[in-house]
Amino acid sequence: MNGLNIVVLGAGLMGRLVAWSLSRLGHRVQLHETKASDQHGAAAWVAAAMLAPLAESAITELNVVQMGRYSLQRWPELLAELEHPVFFQQDGTLVVWHRQDASEAQRFSAKLMDTAQRMPELNAPVALNAASLHQLEPTLSDVFQQGLFLPGEGQLDNRQLLNALMQQLQSSHVELHFSSNVSPEQFSHADWVIDCRGMGAHKAWDNLRGVRGEVLRIHAPDVKLSRPVRLIHPRYPLYIAPKQDGVFVIGATEIESDDTSPASVRSSLELLSAAYSVHKGFAEARILEINAQIRPTLPDNLPAIRIHENKYMHINGLYRHGFLIAPAILDAALDLMEGRSDLAHSLGISVLEEAP
Ligand SMILES: Cc1cc2nc3c(=O)[nH]c(=O)nc-3n(C[C@H](O)[C@H](O)[C@H](O)COP(=O)(O)OP(=O)(O)OC[C@H]3O[C@@H](n4cnc5c(N)ncnc54)[C@H](O)[C@@H]3O)c2cc1C
Question: How many CB atoms lie within 10 A of CB 53?
């Protein structure tokens, strides 16, 4: 299969990855994005881009964990093919909690232990005491005397990735159409139409809903953290994802809503207070951005690929796991285009086929 005319809709995370991969396979690819080239409509632009299969197993199904594990191996291979470097690290996740939240932490740890037992191929969580916590993140040991370390978990820089993919699309002569608000039926002449519009595809999925996430980007050069830190809290669970050059992404709220209006004062206060309770160095940080976006989510909170007429493929429902699972979804989608479903089945990716 090569030399096909393929139209990809949506230049967010999946759209860019799919368009790039298909052009490398020798197809003629058009990519349509509803936003202008200097605007950002993708959930992927505001995300923290943590790659944390074990941490996420506290709230998700084992097949997502499986997709995440597969993707953690694939990301370095994919990033190595890009001309522009993308910050990626796999130094684990640190989980901490304040003393009064110990019972919540116990529940969380028990879930992770259960996942590790059911999937022995994952690195098991490691309980930390004051000394071992100090070794990992010295600046946190004043506040926390215990924690949990999840070895092997990762993160990447979402914006560097999106920019690097766009540069790659430009240099590989993918036809780029910005300010192009489109739907799949407009491209019946194409050999394949791949719909990666996230929330923009709500008419193609009866049951797609938005889960709003609010997140801050701050500059805190005095805060030294080497890896993403998660704070367990009954009301304000929080993550702090350190990027390069003293930038941190702090998030995120999880609100059942399609509302894309700016972040609320309440959410911003809660996120910032929780971050300050983890590290007092955030007091002098500078707030670069406060963002709100919606995570495209299906009723079971799991991703799905739907195919009909052997030419329309809809990829959606990546919810809060887009970066965690994108390489798995990408590889499964490319295989499905060639009539192979083994990978999708082995990773538990839901493939919905509709009669023409
Ligand atoms: C606050 C927040 C934090 C997150 N943190 C993480 C994290 O740490 N780890 C993780 O794995 N995931 C995280 N996610 C989830 C991740 O960002 C999403 O799962 C992922 O971006 C979904 O990818 P997508 O390509 O399906 O949709 P998107 O990235 O949203 O892209 C969809 C694109 O389609 C375009 N579009 C819409 N309608 C049309 C149309 N009619 N025509 C053309 N184009 C259209 C949009 O403008 C957009 O560019 C987070 C999300 C949020 C909101």
Answer: 29
Host domain of residue 106 = 93-151+209-297
- Summarised one tens digit per residue, pLDDT across range 39-83 is 999 999 999 999 999 999 999 999 999 999 999 999 999 999 999
Q: Is the CB of 301 under 6 A from ligand 1?
A: no
Q: Are residues 108 and 147 in the same domain?
A: yes
Tokens, residue 329? 């979804």
Whether 247 and 287 have beta carbons less than 8 Å apart is answered as: no
Q: 311 CB less than 6 Å from ligand 1?
A: no
What total of structural domains would you count in the chain?
A: 2
- Other beta carbons within 10 angstroms of residue 310's beta carbon come to 12
Q: Name beta bridge partners: 213.
A: 293
Ligand 1: atom nearest CA of 211 is 53
40 and 137 fall within a common domain: no
Residue that is written with structure tokens 């860019």 in the block: 16
Residue nearest to atom 3 of ligand 1 (CA): 47
